[in-house]
Each structure stands twice: as structure tokens, then as C-alpha cells.
Amino acid sequence: MSLRYGVGFLVLWLVGGMLASYLVDVHNLFGMKDFYRDNLSDTSPGVWSAWFGTKGPTEYFQWFFLGIGALGSFAVFMYLPRNPLTYFWLLVSVVFALLFFEDYLDLRDQLTFFSSKQVYFDFGLIFVLVSFISLKYGRRAYNMLDLPTFMLFFVGVIVYGLVGLYHVAGLHFEVGNFINNVATGHLSPDSCSSCVAAISDSIVEEGGEFLAAGLLAVGVLTVPPIMVFRNA
Fold first, then answer.
1. Which long-range contacts (CB under 8 A, 24 or more apart) does 178-186 make?
2. Which of 75, 112, 122, 175 has the fewest CB within 10 Å, making it most exposed?
3. Which residues constitute the domain of residue 140?
4. Cα 47–106–44 angle (5° rounding)?
5. How many domains does the structure of the chain reveal?
6. Global pTM value
């Protein structure tokens, strides 16, 4: 099975969600928006929220990818013959586990060691660990991994980094307002800041984390002894 199927699924899921939201939430195709609100959801503002929102299918997929990544990279560490990348896989497994528990347990809101600054501690810890892995093992990974596998890791880390910057910068309202304006106000008729911010939290943040986690998980699954996805 080609890794293109894995990457293709990620792209199709994101594009499919955005297209469904565009057709239903913006254009009310065949009256589906009215049917959705009247019969399927009393609380969700629209398809975009049901598809990308918190505790929705996109986030569940993200948790699944992070769990697969953590277990898969640990399996590589345990069963792959010892080589210069042995402890790379162990550290990658730790990063996957941190990302999983940070998001699944919502640690940035549940832990209060640093009050409102908890998010900086959480993301800072992950950033330091990823930076260490990149500096110590980056060149070895580039030389020893297949180029498609390396690129999956590289792009996945970049996307996660961009999502982290977006979150720390607090651009939720600005980005959400821009998206809502492009959709001519159909995504959130209510202009309250939290309602508008929820748009970018769902589509941008959850969508970005889904893509990043998926790319990293597919990358792990291309590595012996797992090799669920193979180059084609």
C-alpha cells in the first residue's frame, strides 16, 4: 500500500470538510443547512463546527494518529537493530505521547502551574524537545531515512509549529473574523468574539493539528519493522 493513500486521506478529509461547509453552511445546498439545524444539531453553528470542532471526528482522528505515532515509533525503537537513529525513535515516541496527552487531556486548561501562561510551558517543553531531536538527529535522519519518510516528518513538524505559533499569538478572533467575512457571515451570524474565534479554532487549529499528526503518523508507518505504507 502506497503512503500516497495515507497522505491522500488526510487531504481528502480536510478538503471534504471545507467543501461540505461551503456548500451547506454558505450556500444552503438543497436546503441542507436548514435540515441540519432543525434535525441534526441544536448546538452546532454548522457543518464546519461538527466536522472540525472540539470533540468532533477531526479531533478524534488526530488523537488516533498521535497514539499510532507514539506506539509505532516506540515499536521501531524496540525492534529495529541498533543504529545511530535508535534513540531518535524513542524521543519521537515521547513527543507523540506529549502531544497526545496535552491535547486529549487539554492540559493547557487543566493544569494551572503557570496560570494563564500554562500554554507557554506546554508548547515550550515540546518545542525544546523537538529542537533537540532536530539538532542532534536531523542530519542522520536525512541520510538514513527514505526521502518521502523524512519529508513527512519535516512537513508535519512545520505544520505543528505554525499551529503552535498561531495559538500562542492569540490570532483566533482575527483569523476567524477573516474566514467568516469570506463566507459572507454564514459561518457565524453572531458576531461575538468567542463565536467568531471558534471558527478559526476549529478549521485552522484542529484542521492543522489533524494534518500534522497524520503526516507524522504516516511517516512512522513507513519505517521498518512496521511498513504499513510502502512507497510506490
1. 179/203, 179/204, 183/22, 183/25, 183/26, 184/26, 186/25, 186/26, 186/46
2. 112
3. 3-220
4. 20
5. 1
6. 0.85
- Half-sphere exposure at residue 163, Cβ-oriented, CA atoms within 13 angstroms: 23
d(CA 15, CA 51) in angstroms, rounded, equals 11
Hey, which residues does 230 pair with through a beta bridge? 2
C-alpha grid cell, residue 197: 474565534
Query: Scanning the structure block, which residue is given the C-alpha cell 463566507?
Result: 183
* Burial (0-12, 13-18, 19+ Cβ within 10 Å), 213: buried
Residue 230 lies in a domain: no
pLDDT, residue 114, reads 47
**Contact status, residue 142 vs residue 150, Cβ threshold 8 Å:** yes
Cβ atoms of residues 95 and 65 within 8 Å: no
In a domain, 133, yes or no: yes
More confident residue, 195 or 16: 16
229 within some domain: no
Residue with cell 503552535: 164
In tens, the pLDDT along 53-82 reads: 888 899 999 999 999 999 999 998 888 778
Residues 6+ apart with CB under 8 A from 229: 1, 2, 3, 5, 6, 218, 221, 222
SS3 content of the chain, % helix, strand, coil (to 5): 80, 0, 20
Is residue 77 a part of any domain in this protein?
yes
Residues 6+ apart with CB under 8 A from 91: 129, 132, 133, 137
